[in-house]
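ESCALATION

Customer reports they have been waiting on this structure for their group meeting. Please prioritize. Original submission:
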Amino acid sequence: MKINRPVKTWLLSLLAPLALIGAPAAAPAAEPLRVVVGTMSYPFEVFDEQGQMSGGLLKELGDQLARELGTRPDYLRLPRRRVEPSLLAGEADIYCFDSPEWSENPKVLLWSIPTLKQIERVLVPKNKPLPTRIPDDFVGKRVSVRLGYHYASIQPLFDADKASRMDETQTAFMFKSVETGLTDMLISSDGEIEGYFQTNPKARKNFAIASKPFSVVATQCAVSPKSRWSLDKVNQGLSSMLKRGDMDRMTKHYGLSMH
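Update from on-call: job pushed to the front of the queue and completed.
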């Protein structure tokens, strides 16, 4: 039987809502993981000419963690003084390579399981012996360090004038200080060391680097108490990454270490 066009249109209008009843609803898009960046340089963070995050260890970490959570990362570039206020206000979800020891609000923020390690090492001129005993081998030495940083194991030497603390505001100044003989050694983190040599590759041959760490801090991710992503979910994702060896792979790629 042939159905004329007006009747056919009327029947289709009745059937269309019924078809929709049986159709599965589209899954809502997952909220992005809002990751705070912008406080560090290579090898942790790399930005393109437009100021967008384009690489670095913390981008790899953020990308992978977002995949573990089934979402995408949204990188928020902020100055250091804005990091914790942004987390506390719920404007961002997470900030990694941090520690309660460095935080102004450690009891208010949520803290993930330990992830990457910040390892500090001692560097001396290539032809000089590296200190092997802490604090004994620092006696009588001029030590180039970062202004505002605390070095608990040798602070008693500074306090008793048995060693000289030479404060610098930038890593590059610390290296120049040792190269020019103004100081005998410097203390810096693996990340700062590799960042300096990335910019000044010829300088690497001028220094000896201690294989034994001067200090080790197991860093964590600071999570906003107002985050849409629970601390348990974040920890599950990070735990999976650690079990697979993702952290070791990422750090080795940038010349860093977990040991």
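Sent to customer with the following note: The helical segments are 5-22, 57-69, 80-88, 155-159, 171-179, 190-199, 231-244, 246-253.
Escalation resolved.
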